[in-house]
Amino acid sequence: MIRFSVGGFYGHYRPLVTLLLLREEHPEWFREGVMVDSTFDSWPNVPWNGGRIRFDNPYPIREMEKNIRFFNGRGIGIRFTYTNLLLGPEHLGDVLGNRTLELANDPLNAVIVASPVLEAYVRERYPKFKIIGSCTTDLRNPAALAARAQELDLIVLPPDLNHHPSLVEQLGPARVEILVNERCKACCGDRKLHYHNISRAVLDQELAAQRDPTLTLPQACVFRVGTPAWRQREGAAVKYPLYLSFPEIEALHRRGVEHFKLAGRDVAFPVLLADFARFLVQEEHQAEFSFAFLELLHDGRAFRWASGAAAA
């Protein structure tokens, strides 16, 4: 089975439940042997969050509970993106972060980590969670990756290394998760600095409140505002060098890799829909899937379905 973890249980909640309703109503449209296994994100204002800025009005606890029930009730795990690189012991007592883990404390769910401090805390206080190693650490040394993989339930491979089958074998295919739709340039030398800047912004509420993801981009980044790369980045038809084709995913699966990550918790809607269709839907059904998806999203039926299911 090819198991996708899909970004956006908070940022793209409505599109995600729309996808799941279409999967229930039209299973024949979807790729055989492919499933949505989990969804990853963070609710806003949790200082442990990393990778993206999540700063917004407080999200009600009762809605968190409903969201967890909805996804877990369908066998879909919640994965918290608690990948802030700059956490220290002083951050571990955060009330909201701990509350989210209390609500979702189940072996189906996971915490994605980049900080050894937070990892040790979660292992001690919330041992039911799976622990997943984030690619935001940008760890590339094969021996170090192999050692780290043995400590984790899963490790997300830096996307530049997706085409190194010998490394996948060394780490153990069952412990590897492959990011299939990385939108950064290949061999980006600024990636770790970018994630560091995001971590700093998450911990600085004044920066986070500006809600401007460009503030965290390193000066040398080709995607800075105003560059041709930035203007093209939100187009659904843009070709990115680190995107995997579905035949490449199938080749990795034949080598024993089951876990794949579909990023997108900050992308524009056209990109999100295109990726849903590209990776999850059979080619001959992608047009009708996209039309039905837009119709469902517009009329709100999927959201009402999810709300009713969570309340049941």
Provide structural commentary:
There is one protein chain. With 312 residues, the protein is α/β, with parallel strands linked by helices. The chain has a single domain (2-311), classed as TIM Barrel, CATH 3.20.20. The protein is built from 13 helices and eight strands. It has helices at 13-25, 61-73, 95-103, 116-125, 142-149, 165-171, 191-203, 205-209, 228-233, 246-254, 269-280, 286-299, 301-311, and strands at 2-7, 34-41, 77-82, 110-113, 130-133, 154-157, 176-179, 259-262. The protein has an eight-stranded parallel barrel, surrounded by five helices. It is globular, with a radius of gyration of 19 Å. The two termini are 29 Å apart.
Lay out the secondary structure.
Elements: E1 2-7, H1 13-25, E2 34-41, H2 61-73, E3 77-82, H3 95-103, E4 110-113, H4 116-125, E5 130-133, H5 142-149, E6 154-157, H6 165-171, E7 176-179, H7 191-203, H8 205-209, H9 228-233, H10 246-254, E8 259-262, H11 269-280, H12 286-299, H13 301-311
Parallel strand pairs: 1-2, 1-8, 2-3, 3-4, 4-5, 5-6, 6-7, 7-8
Helix pairs in contact: 1-12, 1-13, 2-13, 11-12
Comma- or semicolon-separated keywords:
8 strands, 312 residues, single chain, 8-stranded parallel barrel, alpha/beta, TIM Barrel
